Amino acid sequence: MSTHPENTIPALEEAVRLGAHMIEFDIQLTKDGALVLMHDTTVDRTTNGKGKVSDLTLAEIKGLDTGAKMNAKFAGTRIPTFEEGLAVFPKNVWLNCHLKGGAALGEATAKVIEKTGRKHQAFLAAMADQAKTARAAVPDILICNMERQGDSMAYAQETIEMKASFIQLLGKGVVPTEAVKLLNEAGVKVNYYHDETPEGLRRQWQAGVNFPLVNDVTTAMPVAREFGIEPLK
């Protein structure tokens, strides 16, 4: 959400309130093995602290303010754990869990998804090594292939062959309609990043993209309604 501090409880709650069908967030491991929501490898940009997430303990991370840098009204906002983030969500929204780390992160995240009863809605946006360890721990965990993030037919075919449930295509100005058609026919849901102009959103839905990834849900929803897509209740 562009209106709220990224990867925070206020941002997740706002996305739910607006009726987003899919909510994306980033997951990393702390020094002591806790799963937290954070995009960058360091806390420098979004908090009042400094250092790599992987070099900080959960207690140290919980002591940081991750809201004030964006807007004073969010002062005191803390970095949530993965489980704290999950607790915000109803059971009918797709959860796009973008893994920011190595293979061990895939296993740890998959286990939490299984433990919390979210396997039906949460998927791992993962590289091949992360997907492998996640599936070793939880064989039926849902995977979004992020190995290439391109738009080629080869990437689409590889995604089908690895039996991923989702793919993330990286936009290059033109939606790859043939690749999207192949993925649609194989039952792979297509996420597309990134063009959230009204014209771009229309092109994506017309081509068969399932989920355009956007920062501003309020801008996307009027276009979504043109295609019969209403906010989730």
Automatic annotation (TrEMBL):
Q: Which residues form a coiled coil?
A: none
What CDD domains is this protein classified in? GDPD_AtGDE_like
Every copy of the GP-PDE domain together lies at 1-224
Q: Which InterPro entries match?
A: GP_PDE_dom, PLC-like_Pdiesterase_TIM-brl
**Any single biological process term in GO:** lipid metabolic process
Matching Pfam families: GDPD
SUPFAM superfamilies in alphabetical order: PLC-like phosphodiesterases
- What's the protein here called? GP-PDE domain-containing protein
Species annotation = Brevifollis gellanilyticus
Recorded hits in PANTHER family, A to Z, give:
GLYCEROPHOSPHODIESTER PHOSPHODIESTERASE, GLYCEROPHOSPHORYL DIESTER PHOSPHODIESTERASE
Annotated Gene Ontology MF terms?
phosphoric diester hydrolase activity
